[in-house]
Amino acid sequence: MCQSIQKVLPILLASALSTFGQGNRAEVDLALDSVVLRPGERQLFLDDFILGDLNGATRVIHQPRKHGTEPVLRADLPTDGNAIQLRDAPSWDEQEQVWKLWYIRFGDDGNGAGGSGYARSKDGLVWEKPELGLVESHGNRKNNLIMVQGDSNAFTQHVIIDPRAPAERRYKGMIGPRGRQPIVSADGFTFTRLKVPVIPSQDESHLNWDESTGRFIFTVKHGGPFGRSVYLSLSEDFEHWTKPELIYHADARDQELGAEYIREVQANPRLWRPTVNRPDEYNVEIYNMAVFRYEGLYIGLPTYFESSGRIPPPRGNQDGVNSPKLAASRDLRAWTRVGDRSHFIPIAETGPGVLDTGQIMVGSHPIRRGDELWFYYSGIDVRHRPNVPRVIDEYRGAIYLAKLRVDGFVSLSAGEKAGYVDTRPVILEGRRLFVNATARGEIRAEIASPDGRTPRPGWGAGQCVPVTGDQVRAELTWPGKDLAELSGQRVRVRFHLNNADLYSFWLEP
User: Fold this and answer.
1) Which are the contacts of 127, defined by CB distance < 8 A and separation ≥ 6?
2) Element (H, E) at 14
3) CB neighbours of 279 closer than 8 A, spacing ≥ 6?
4) Are 366 and 309 contacting, i.e. CB atoms less than 8 angstroms apart?
5) 167-207 pLDDT tens trace
6) Which of 2.60.120.260, 3.30.70.20, 2.60.40.1220, 2.160.20.10 is the CATH number of 34-62+411-508?
7) Is the distance from CB of 295 to CB of 275 less than 8 angstroms?
8) CA neighbor of 437 nearest in space, from 344, 507, 499
9) Could you give phi then psi for residue 437, rounded to 5 degrees?
């Protein structure tokens, strides 16, 4: 039994016992052995949960395509300083029909190296920074800075829109450079601290809402094996939070891959190379991790800090490269490192005006625009720039955008030599089968017995109308057949791939 299935068996057992009752163990065993494919929920391949056999097909990670070399949002106001960053994705305001974004600024204007600026956009590409008139900076209030209970020094880390909340709490956020305190607002500009305990954290965190469970997901940073690690805190009401628990940290294999990567970066003249290079001090830590619900699983974008050595005093800390990789989980605790642990959004090559050359930190989740997923991320030019008088001048940063086809994190791929992939035993609830795929050749499917050995009569690959081309929603059909005929039966679905990439599949009524 594959490791990822073993990890989720307790979840499946609880679900099965809830569905069938404690007394009918035979039906529970059947449920444990089968996955019910309900209409609308897409099945992805970041882990092995849905998979049976693979033959001639391999898992391929797909990197988002960067939206050019120019940022979508630069540090272009005096209050922005040299760098702006984000940790949250833009929020869509249904009432105003506009995207809203609160970003972290690093401005040297007497208000500290913190606080948040506000920006808005109709299309997610062209952004404006309206004057809010709330915080005095550089002798005036003509800026886009938000306020927390009149405290212009508040280091605002997160702001999101909660359309389910009462009007006075429609906007929710977190403040604090160390530890996080929940804040709320009616307008997104003037916030009030909630009188609740601070959530313990170091200087990194991510905030998301999980619609499927009705909980806020909050990942924070604390120490763990090999250094910086990711901890999880949950809340249903934004006031009562679970104690942060360790869920993700670097391991021994990460150390090996990190050392290889730092050597590759140092040897590549087209990349920014860390100033400090001490091979005996190479180390990999997890700087932060965005965690979000996507279809039937949780996806994590852990930022891997691949350190090249200690920075000399008085600055201290470590030099190196920050960039995200890809992970998946079914329960928020047990995580699968996806594929070969390659970088999901890699640092860019150096060039005039390019800033995402040293560090990349992704927003809390992608936003869907048509048939694409848009990832907004912080791009910073270096980790350490020596011989500068202040930390605030050490780097420059802006906000960038990268795009991925919907469901396009991972594909199962086969070349000219055809391959196939089986699901594990499933129970079909739906009448139509769809795939998201790129077929330079073709994709066919067959419905087989639970052991995968015998195609059901009329449901063989030879009877299936093939899918060709690049399609995010293509239907697989068998002339004269209706999947409703198989409703409630245990079967396997086998996808035959000929020079094709399969990203996801799902049922519809």
Assistant:
1) 72, 73, 101, 119, 120, 121
2) helix 3-20
3) 259, 263, 309
4) no
5) 999 999 999 888 999 999 999 999 999 999 999 999 999 99
6) 2.60.120.260
7) no
8) 499
9) -155, 160
